[in-house]
Specification:
Elements (H helix, E strand, L loop, with lengths): L1 H11 L96 E3 L5 E3 L14 H13 L4 H12 L5 H28 L2 E11 L2 E9 L4 E6 L4 H7 L8 E4 L12 E4 L1 H15 L2 H22 L6 H21 L9
Pfam family, one: DDE_Tnp_IS66
Protein name: IS66 family transposase
InterPro entries: DUF6444, Transposase-related, Transposase_IS66_central
């Protein structure tokens, strides 16, 4: 009974900072812990840094000359303003006031003296008596898919900025058209990730038509693929067809369905491990958790420095890392022996 109560208490202490629970499960509780380490430096710009500032353009789009008075302020003689020189320059950087532009296309017709009737053709893509152009279509897709604005707010923004009334339903149609046009590119990305030596995978909840769905991601240094599915586990993984059958390294957060991908070499995400270690430290106070945290952070710093200097670790170097890692794991196992009997 006490063991069960301890388990319940432990679960209540979990949040997105110290476990793999999503941030949406934290509610309105104020977060107080962070995995970021203090650098010891003062807040703000550091001494010696190369700052950036707004600079004057060499070729301004418009020049406004402010005239001198016609006569001298002291003697009232006429000023030879044609000889005036620029004594100072100031620039104002702004965005132009914009409005939509309507281009009308005319197809011409003419009958030759021989009686042959000729007509010109409209350019490709101009197929309706009135339609939206490619720029506003691209803007609508970018606002909803790139900037993640709701369709209604994206339509409102287009109207406020450009004075163009576009319905949310029209934006939905544009997104569908863009999706169809980019499907070949998405297929190439998926194929490249399926064959990649190393891929990161994750999933995050989102709402689709008011119902919980999952945004699945597969990515490496050069490619990123997103897919939405109503399921979080194997049904989505199999339908997306990227992770199943891979023989490379798969980095993930220890979500159970990933372990069913037997062809992959599994690696756990260190960011998630650090949160789990923070939870172990907060709930048990056992020193191995902090030791593993320090080891992972230091190992990451060493690996980053080695990559920057194009240094390859020797087999002995890798063995040394593994020895330290294994020793800390054994310390944790001794402090937390596996309970006998069935484990749920």
């Amino acid at each position: 009974m006490f063991a069960r109560l301890n388990a319940v208490e432990a679960r209540l202490g979990m949040n997105s900072d110290n476990s793999s629970k999503p941030p949406s499960s934290d509610g309105l509780v104020k977060k107080t812990s962070s995995l970021r380490e203090s650098s010891g430096k003062k807040v703000g710009g550091q001494k010696g840094r190369k700052g950036t500032t707004l600079r004057q353009a060499e070729q301004p789009d418009e020049v406004v000359k402010h005239p001198l008075p016609g006569q001298c302020e002291r003697c009232h003689a006429a000023l030879p303003t044609q000889h005036a020189q620029v004594w100072a320059r100031r620039q104002v950087v702004d965005v132009p006031t914009v409005a939509f532009n309507v281009v009308e296309h005319h197809a011409l017709a003419l009958t030759c003296v021989c009686g042959q009737f000729h007509t010109s053709s409209f350019p490709g893509g101009v197929s309706e008596s009135v339609q939206y152009g490619p720029n506003v279509r691209a803007l609508g897709v970018h606002l909803t898919q790139g900037q993640m604005l709701p369709y209604a707010r994206a339509a409102e923004l287009i109207h406020d900025v450009y004075g163009l009334a576009v319905s949310p339903g029209t934006l939905v149609a544009w997104v569908a058209e863009a999706s169809a046009a980019l499907q070949k590119t998405a297929n190439v990305i998926a194929s490249q990730l399926n064959a990649a030596q190393l891929v990161h995978a994750d999933e995050s909840g989102l709402r689709v038509a008011g119902k919980l769905h999952w945004l699945h991601i597969a990515a490496n240094e050069t490619h990123t693929w997103y897919g939405v599915h109503g399921k979080r586990g194997m049904a989505a993984i199999e339908q997306h067809g990227i992770l199943a059958g891979r023989t490379g390294v798969l980095v993930h957060d220890c979500w159970a369905p990933y372990w069913r991908l037997d062809d992959s070499t599994h690696a756990l995400c260190n960011a998630h491990l650090l949160r789990e270690l923070l939870y172990a430290k907060e709930t048990t106070g056992q020193p191995w958790a902090q030791a593993m945290t320090d080891f992972l952070l230091n190992a990451n710093k060493l690996c980053t420095a080695a990559r920057e200097r194009q240094i390859v670790f020797s087999a002995d170097d890798v063995c040394a890392f593994r020895t330290v890692y294994d020793n800390i794991v054994r310390e944790g196992e001794r402090a937390n022996p596996v309970a006998s009997g069935r484990v749920k």
